[in-house]
Every structure is written in structure tokens, then in C-alpha cells.
From TrEMBL:
Protein name, UniProt field: LysR family transcriptional regulator substrate-binding protein
Source species of the chain: Amycolatopsis cynarae
Pfam families, A to Z: LysR_substrate (PF03466)
Domain of life: Bacteria
Protein family membership: Belongs to the LysR transcriptional regulatory family.
Keyword annotations: DNA-binding, Transcription, Transcription regulation
Length: 221
């Protein structure tokens, strides 16, 4: 019912030039700044609030009308859509896909490998950071095993803190390769199997206003 009311509010029109952009931390870091710059060139008076949240919270926020445009991400097979809960009455569109890599400490025995297979890491200790990285449940499904075990759960949304936990040996992590570039004490090793990518999608209501449409149009697809 709340989602239906939100659709009615959208159809009635949003306040001119105001938009709430919500997104997962990595999706916001990769795309929000450049999209906002482009949108403000076409709408100079655009007023934006940016809200970082985990993927499910972003989708819920869009469905309930609390977020006008969402940027969500996850790890899937190439060209597969994200598995978003409760998104049946929303509009989604792909933004980007990029390779994923295994994040591990510089001194880790696998740090010098040219690539790794996820199945070979079933007995490794992992960081579970559902607010930033793919939840371990999704990785277990991708590998077809229940043996990926969590050594530490990180509930926050700060990528720098999460990578410092990797550098200190608290667990491994699978992230888009671009997020690992230049991270101190962390080595990025490409994933050879299974074939997985980090996918970013935008999500919004079915009757977006002018400001939401301008911001969505600024995202490359």
C-alpha cells in the first residue's frame, strides 16, 4: 500500500528541482558525482540529497517514495540482472559492469597469483560486509557451496575501513577491481572462475519527475 501511494505521489508531480539520490557506497562512489555534475548542467537549480545505504534499503526507499532515484550494485554472472527484492513495481536499468577481484593482504600466499578460482577459497576466512560488498550468501550461491565462512562481519558503509580490515588479515573480500586500486596493504587478484562481474543498476518509480529523469539520463548506459 505504501508503494502504491508513492506511485500516486510521483504521478502527481515532485517539487521542482528536488531529488533524493540513494545508493550503495560503491555505486555512489563510482557514478554519483559525474551524474550530478551532468544533471546540474541541464537543471542549474537542482537540489539533491545523497543517502548511502545497503542495497535492500535503497530499493525499499525507492518503493516507498523516500528515495527518488537509487543506484544499487551486486555481483552476478555477466549480463545477468541484479536480484532485487520487492522491485516488481519499479523501473530498473543497467548502468555498468566491471570485473571483480579478490582483495587480500599483500603478504597473503595467494597475493602473487595471476588469478584465482573462487571454489579454491572455500576454506578461507571471509569478511562479510553486506552494506558494501556482495553478501556471503550470494557468493555461496555463485560457487555452489555452503563452506564460505565469515571471520568478521562489518556493518558499516565506509570502504576505506573495510579495506583496512583486509590489509590486517581479518578476511578476504570480493570487490570490483576499480575499488581496490591504490588501497594500501591490499593486493587485488583477478577472479578466473566462476565468471562474475560487479553490476550497477539504477532504480526509480514508474512515473519519474523532471529532476529524476535528468539525473537518470546523466548516468551512462
Amino acid at each position: 500500500m505504501e508503494a502504491a501511494r508513492a506511485d500516486i505521489r510521483r504521478a502527481a508531480g515532485e517539487p521542482p528541482g528536488k531529488v533524493v539520490l540513494g545508493g550503495c557506497p560503491l555505486a555512489l562512489a563510482g557514478w554519483a558525482a559525474r551524474a550530478l555534475a551532468e544533471a546540474r548542467r541541464s537543471l542549474p537549480g537542482l537540489e539533491v540529497s545523497v543517502r548511502a545505504a545497503a542495497r535492500d534499503a535503497v530499493v525499499d526507499g525507492v518503493a516507498l517514495g523516500e528515495i527518488d532515484l537509487g543506484l544499487v550494485d551486486g555481483i552476478v554472472a555477466p549480463s545477468d540482472p541484479l536480484r532485487l527484492h520487492d522491485a516488481d513495481f519499479l523501473t530498473t536499468a543497467p548502468v555498468a559492469e566491471e570485473p571483480v577481484a579478490l582483495a587480500l593482504p599483500d603478504e597473503h600466499p595467494l597475493a602473487t597469483r595471476s588469478s584465482v578460482r573462487l571454489r579454491d577459497l572455500a576454506d578461507a576466512s571471509w569478511l562479510d560486509a553486506p552494506g558494501i560488498a556482495a553478501p556471503l550468501g550470494e557468493l555461496r550461491a555463485a560457487v555452489g557451496t555452503d563452506h564460505l565462512r565469515s571471520a568478521l562481519r562489518y556493518e558499516g558503509g565506509d570502504t576505506r575501513t573495510l579495506l583496512s580490515l583486509v590489509a590486517e588479515g581479518h578476511g578476504l573480500l570480493l570487490l570490483p577491481a576499480s575499488a581496490l586500486a591504490g588501497a594500501p596493504g591490499v593486493r587485488a587478484v583477478p577472479l578466473s572462475a566462476p565468471r562474475l562481474v560487479h553490476r550497477t543498476e539504477l532504480v526509480h518509480g514508474r512515473a519519474p519527475g523532471a529532476a529524476v529523469s535528468a539525473l537518470a539520463a546523466a548516468l551512462p548506459r
